[in-house]
Amino acid sequence: MKKFIIEGSYAKLKLEEEKLKLLKSFIRNEQDLLNNKRMFWREHGVIGEFISNKVYEYDHLELNELLYDLGILPFISQLDSNLLSAEELQILKPIQVSVVKYIRYSPNKYGKINGFKQNAFSEYIIELPLSKKVGLWKKTFKEAELLRTAWDNRRNLAVKSCGWFSPIAFEMGTLSLLETPACYMAKDAVELLSKETLLKCAVVDLQRIVEFTARGILKISELNKTRKITDIQRKYFLITLEKEQRKRLYWHSRLEGLSKLT
Q1: Residue 150 or residue 257, greater confidence
Q2: The pLDDT value given to residue 213
């Protein structure tokens, strides 16, 4: 990891990521002006698409009570350890999910990205035709993807091989080994905690709820009583054709699974 950083590959990764943000912003704005919800640049194998999503605000306790009464809550939630008492955390220690270790790099002033002139790059790309911008985005995306994969591989290998270490300071910054917070699955805690504690501390995986609406166990009308729409977000996605095809295969497989549940 130190070699990757010292040789400049990490700085190159961050530079490419900054370029990607600017390019995406310019492409989004131009597509928006054209009033096209979806565009496909066949010559580059890139798709740009605007998607609107409803943003919900849930009544946490009301949702948990509904799911608990249906017998679903323990299977699609984990416990918020910040809401548990010291005594409850001690009780749950035997069922704690193994923490995940990861390495964080904190650059110092010598490790920070230098040399990226945002204004100059913006002036350069603003003069390019839209298709040229998309082509440059694709090229930059591929370079960033290769560097990101190389960086993540080094981080994962370092975690597996090092076991544990104190923060390592070097000329470009500091490498620290950290752990994800303690995690407790609600299904493992049903016999250990009271119903009131489960209702208060369970955090629902909202992505899983669709499985139970597909089965008919949970009605949309019941779910809607526990939430309200607070916003409609309009997001812009710029994606390669290969990634969109993988995404479509994933959702097709998931929809097939849900159709069997109905």
Answers
A1: 150
A2: 85
For the record, the structure tokens of 226 come out as 């526990």
**Which tokens belong to 50?**
């605007």
SS3 24: helix
CA 120, CA 127: separation in Å to the nearest integer?
Answer: 12
Residue with the larger pLDDT of the pair 129 and 251: 129
Query: For residues 195, 201, 202 and 204, what is the CA-based torsion angle, rounded to 10 degrees?
Result: 140
DSSP secondary structure string for all residues of 68-115: HHTT-GGGSEEE-GGGS-HHHHHHHGGGPBPP-EEEEEEE-TTTS---
Buried/exposed code over 17-53 (b: 16+ C-beta within 10 A; e: otherwise): ebbbebbbebbbebbeeeeeeebebeebbbbbbeeee
pLDDT tens, position by position, 157-188: 999 887 777 899 999 999 999 988 889 999 99
Taking only the tens place, the pLDDT of each residue in 69-117 is: 999 999 999 999 999 999 999 999 999 998 889 999 999 988 887 767 7
The Cα diameter of the chain in Å comes to 65
In sequence order, what are the residues at sequence separation of 6 or more whose Cβ sits closer than 8 angstroms to the Cβ of residue 68? 195, 198, 199
CA distance 152 to 150: 6
Tokens (6 digits) for 157: 């290998």
| Sign of the alpha-carbon torsion through 209, 211, 212, 214 | positive
d(CA 163, CA 185): 25
- How far apart are the C-alpha atoms of 254 and 262, rounded to whole Å? 13
Q: Please classify residue 104 by burial: count the beta carbons closer than 10 Å to its beta carbon, then call 0-12 exposed, 13-18 middle and 19+ buried.
A: exposed
Other residues' Cβ atoms within 10 Å of the Cβ of residue 125: 17
